[in-house]
Specification:
The chain is mostly helical. It is about 50% helix and about 10% strand. Strands 1-2 form a two-stranded antiparallel sheet.
Length: about 190
């Protein structure tokens, strides 16, 4: 935080007035940290790494989670350090060590890059479910989104929120509008 003091002379009372304002100071982001963050390999707890190499040598960067995990496994496999000691020195738990070791053996170095968690796409609304909703809506234009949700639950055994249905149908409609005109002659669904 930067404090700025400005002196002004009040002409009517001929008194000096100090105006104090506080401005937020912009933090300069280290370009390497920014790159690590963008690539998804920023170690969120570099302070937990207390291995001498990472504390003494500039080449070793505790902010790079791939480098930290690789060195942790390498220390055990090539230097014979115990899993407990290596895990503690590199800021990970023993189960994390074994997971990292397994991933490294199976996938190599690229396997150490963290992957996004959770579903990768709409996992409830498979193509066949959206096809069903489209045809049901086309057959009966007065069918509400809640009615569609009920029909999907009965037919596919999947509970789907009405907003999810609206988004899926809108997305399908948008695809149809962007596709060449010869591919479809259906009108809008929503």
């Amino acid at each position: 935080m930067v404090i700025v003091i400005a002196n002004f002379l009040d002409m009517q009372s001929r008194m000096g007035v100090n105006i104090i304002t506080m401005k937020k100071q912009r933090r300069t982001v280290d370009p390497k940290v920014q790159t690590l963050r963008e690539q998804g390999v920023l170690n969120h707890h570099p302070e937990r790494v207390n291995d001498p190499l990472f504390l003494e040598k500039e080449f070793f960067d505790a902010r790079d989670v791939v480098q930290v995990k690789y060195e942790m496994v390498r220390r055990v496999e090539t230097e014979g350090e115990s899993v407990t000691a290596a895990s503690a020195a590199f800021g990970f738990s023993r189960p994390s060590f074994y997971q990292t070791q397994s991933t490294l053996r199976q996938d190599g170095l690229p396997g150490l890059i963290p992957k996004k968690r959770g579903p990768r796409s709409g996992h409830k609304l498979r193509e066949e479910v959206v096809d069903f909703m489209e045809s049901a809506r086309a057959a009966d234009r007065s069918l509400s989104v809640s009615d569609l949700a009920s029909q999907v639950a009965k037919r596919f055994g999947v509970e789907v929120h009405r907003r999810t249905i609206e988004r899926a149908l809108r997305k399908r409609e948008k695809k149809r509008l962007l596709a060449p005109e010869s591919s479809s002659t259906k009108g809008p669904l929503l």
